[in-house]
Amino acid sequence: MMHLSRLSEELVLWSSWEFGFVSLSDAYTTGSSIMPQKKNPDMAELVRGKTGRVYGDLMALLTMLKGLPLAYNKDMQEDKELIFDACDTALSCLGITEGMIRTMSARPDRMRTAAGEGFINATDLADYLVGRGMAFRDAYKISGRIVAYCIQNGKTLESLSIDEYRQFSESFDEDVFAAIDMEACVNRRVSEGGTSVASVSAQIAAVREIINKKS
Questions:
Q1: What percent of the residues of the chain are helix, what percent strand, and what percent coil, each to the nearest 5?
Q2: Strand, helix or coil for residue 106
Q3: What's domain 2-106's architecture?
Q4: Mean pLDDT in each 10-residue stretch from start to end of the chain (215 residues)?
Q5: Domain 113-180 fold
Q6: pTM of the model
Q7: Nearest Cα to Cα of residue 182 among 129, 109, 74
């Protein structure tokens, strides 16, 4: 339930107007009573809320058990109601979440724009300067100054010209754009759990293997 709650929180954020990364199916959302433009992610919010109920079952069970000797006591008849409620709630939330994920639409265009505006390739920019022989502490400072410049001028790292880059350091050359390309930055993370296509594919395959074994 903790994992479902965290996933639901992300779906609530991602489906908001400010993010717009995903669009949830009408079957898993509701309208507002007074605002016709709203599409409320009610199912995600309810799953997130149900986590408190299951946590409550756990706390009640632990409280019931904490003062008992190491043997069966009649107090333990209270565990059935709590366990059944927790299991029923978790299973129903799993079913709802599965349907919600299966029917939602992703907005990769919005995600790509947000990635650029979030300067997540700033570390790659610093690494580029390190590759040109600069100490990382100096590369870090220069990259930070460039990000500040972008924010002040409403630009992204990818939209700067080579002349603008050279205002901060003569170490920059045309190949900087390949180094900070967003797709290249993502695919450069090839370690286990990384963001590269190969790493993500391996993670998906591992999870599917676990599911297949259990099913």
A1: 65, 5, 30
A2: strand
A3: Up-down Bundle (1.20)
A4: 98 95 95 83 96 97 93 92 97 97 96 90 96 97 97 95 96 96 93 93 94 86
A5: Ribonucleotide Reductase Protein R1; domain 1 (1.10.40)
A6: 0.81
A7: 109
